């Protein structure tokens, strides 16, 4: 097959005269979806078979070659590594290939206490000396000597922020794509964030500061999916967007990888379908997420409390889309006197429409007399119980109830927003101050 592929080859191209020409090819690099990897594996297999001293191991992935050396002391390990490297480099040169020292990295893996560091040294690779550094990038992961992955996340978070920031302009709160498209964009961020997660998931689960870094990015993306104010909490944003926390998803991926590997190594005729394995792992992840949300500091949040009794149904729903104004009512972050007072936009939390002392999301939904006509239409579909969890349950049960709730929120919140704009025009001091760069000053985050 290989011989047939390499013989009697020709190339067709359109010349400057506009005509099609055929030219016989007797050299060059043959390309093909199957042939390329096959020829590489046949040739590079000689490198994998090179004789190495005890304690030296070789790992190859495509054209990335890693030489691992183990030893009891740094000096002996370095000496052994240079012997192994010399043999590997010689074999690579024998294939007509060259090792690029400027692309070569070296790293000590060790178990030294935090106060101690391995010696600063270099290792000989061919005709060049490569400095042993504190980090090494391999197959997209940034490794360090203690497998702490701090540097990996230091580099990962800005990259995710850049991608998420580029998507913000595509996902405005008003207008823009529907929820399904927004969730698709969020999956792009997720795939970048969770690359290689079976390797580092345990570290992420055990170190709060690493989770905090990832949570900050996921929260911003989830807010874009849910069309929410930027002050809503991580828990509220991820629940509304139906995006489990990254650390839970990382553990899920690690379990799937470990169980798949165990099954593949087990000598049995009984096979578990990959789809069933993933469904089981996802159900475990949802259970873990639910337990976390049931903690008091999370469950008392308006959004979490509304969705938690209907948690599984909310995650699995196929009907309805969350909207900017629906999210305001479900979170309490929006054009409500209590919220505007809290962020310094109102002097008091009173309701401008009925005169009550507290204008909250629940007051707007269930109590404010100014919205009685709109509320009558809502109650006819969702029932008289306008407690958030009851409303969400009704929305999940019938399409008409979902539409009725969205309609109520759109009409009422649009009127409240218009009234707020009128008050701002009448009293410019009510407007949110701007910074010197022209942007609004940050609004304090609130859980």
- Structure summary, number of beta strands: 9
Question: What are the segments in which pLDDT stays under 50 over at least 5 consecutive residues?
Answer: 435-447
Radius of gyration: 30 Å
Largest sheet: 3 strands, mixed
Largest beta sheet: what is the strand line-up? 5-7-6
State the separation between the terminal residues, measured CA to CA: 65 Å
> H/E series, N to C?
HEEHEEHEEEEEHHHHHHHHHHHHHHHH
Global outline: elongated
How many H/I helices?
Answer: 19
Helical content stands at: 40-55%
Strand content: 5-15%
* Chain-averaged pLDDT: 89
Structural class: mainly alpha
Protein name: Jg14784 protein
Biased composition (Basic and acidic residues): 417-440
Domain Reverse transcriptase: 1-143
Pfam families: RVT_1
Q: What does this protein structure show overall?
A:
The C terminus is likely disordered. β6 and β7 form a beta hairpin. The chain contains 19 helices and nine strands. The chain is elongated, with a radius of gyration of 30 Å. The strands form four sheets. It has a three-stranded mixed sheet. It has a two-stranded antiparallel sheet with strand order 1-2. With about 450 residues, the chain is mostly helical.
């Amino acid at each position: 097959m290989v011989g047939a592929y390499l013989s009697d080859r020709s190339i067709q191209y359109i010349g400057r005269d506009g005509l099609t020409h055929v030219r016989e090819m007797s050299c060059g690099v043959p390309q093909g979806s199957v042939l390329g990897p096959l020829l590489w594996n046949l040739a590079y297999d000689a490198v994998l078979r090179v004789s190495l001293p005890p304690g030296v191991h070789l790992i190859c992935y495509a054209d990335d070659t890693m030489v691992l050396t183990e030893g009891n002391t740094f000096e002996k390990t370095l000496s052994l590594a240079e012997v192994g490297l010399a043999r590997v480099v010689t074999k690579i040169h024998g294939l007509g290939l060259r090792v690029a020292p400027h692309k070569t990295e070296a790293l000590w893996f060790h178990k030294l206490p935090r106060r101690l560091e391995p010696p600063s040294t270099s290792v000989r690779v061919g005709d060049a000396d490569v400095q042993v550094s504190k980090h090494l990038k391999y197959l997209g992961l940034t490794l360090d000597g203690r497998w702490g992955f701090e540097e990996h996340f230091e580099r990962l978070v800005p990259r995710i922020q850049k991608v998420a920031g580029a998507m913000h302009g595509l996902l405005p709160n008003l207008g823009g794509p529907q929820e399904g498209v927004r969730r698709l964009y969020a999956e792009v961020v997720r795939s970048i964030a969770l690359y290689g997660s079976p390797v580092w998931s345990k570290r992420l689960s055990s170190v709060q500061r690493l989770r905090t870094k990832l949570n900050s990015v996921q929260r911003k993306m989830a807010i874009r999916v849910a069309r929410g104010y930027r002050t809503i909490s991580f828990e509220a944003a991820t629940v509304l967007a139906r995006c489990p926390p990254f650390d839970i998803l990382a553990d899920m991926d690690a379990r799937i990888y470990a169980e798949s590997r165990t099954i593949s190594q087990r000598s049995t005729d009984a096979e578990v379908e990959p789809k069933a394995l993933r469904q089981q792992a996802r159900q475990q992840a949802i259970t873990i997420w639910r337990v976390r949300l049931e903690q008091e500091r999370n469950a008392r949040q308006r959004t979490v409390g509304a969705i938690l009794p209907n948690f599984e149904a909310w995650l699995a729903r196929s009907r309805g889309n969350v909207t900017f104004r629906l999210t305001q009512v479900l979170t309490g972050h929006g054009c409500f006197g209590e919220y505007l007072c809290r962020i310094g936009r109102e002097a008091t939390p009173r309701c401008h429409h009925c005169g009550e002392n507290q204008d909250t999301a629940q007051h707007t939904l269930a109590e404010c007399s100014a919205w009685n006509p709109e509320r009558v239409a809502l109650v006819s579909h969702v029932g008289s119980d306008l407690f958030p969890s009851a409303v969400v349950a009704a929305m999940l049960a019938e399409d008409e109830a979902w539409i009725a709730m969205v309609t109520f929120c759109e009409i009422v919140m649009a009127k409240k927003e218009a009234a707020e704009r009128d008050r701002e025009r009448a009293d410019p001091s009510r407007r949110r101050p701007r910074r010197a760069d022209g942007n609004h000053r940050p609004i304090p985050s609130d859980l």
